[in-house]
Amino acid sequence: MPTISCPEVTLPLLNRTVAGQALACRLSAYKNQPNTVVLALPRGGVPVAIEIASALGALLDVMVVRKLGAPAFPELALGAIASGNIRVFNHEVIHTYGITPQQIEMIARHEQTELERREQYYRAHRPLLNLSQKTVILVDDGIATGASLQAAIEALRLQKPKKIIVAVAVAAQATLQKFTHIVDEVVCLHSSEHFLSVSQWYDDFSPVSDEQVIQCLNAYWCNDSLQARA
Length: 230
Description:
Low-confidence stretches: none
Structural class: alpha/beta
Strand order of the largest sheet: 2-1-6-7-8
Radius of gyration: 17 Å
Largest sheet: 5 strands, parallel
Strand content: 15-25%
């Protein structure tokens, strides 16, 4: 297959759609390859993944993961949970902020309820794709601590895929380096040592609602021509 020249990425990224188009270009080796599945981490990963799946002609699904926010600082991840009773913890955060096992369990139970709600809401009665021996491209709009992505990878491994590729628009450099050792391939548009948040690398980082996620997924799932090419 001839090499495709991808345009240089301009920062900050305009929006998640542009991020997805740029990542799709860098993943062009997987275009129209059988047994390739694009998995989005909702909510922000869905608009990115839609562009990748469309460009590659791949099947699309979601991997629901919930961050466990620290009690006094909910934006700070003490860990994450994913389907399959997967729990990943950031022990440094837990130790630094003196978070007790009782607090962790209370937070995890709450987020488990929300995880199950979202899985049912996003997918309705649509069954999870069989990912055994598939090439899976796991997509998010960016990674800071990486707790959610790590939980997703551990849950994904239970389904025995052939290959796991992480595709993210932006990432903290140290976090990204960690993932190069636990998956088969990492594709990232931009990583930085000076990474405060994912939003700093986007012009438009508007929140993605549950309704937008469902609309995107249903539009793609109803497009039989796209799904048939995978």
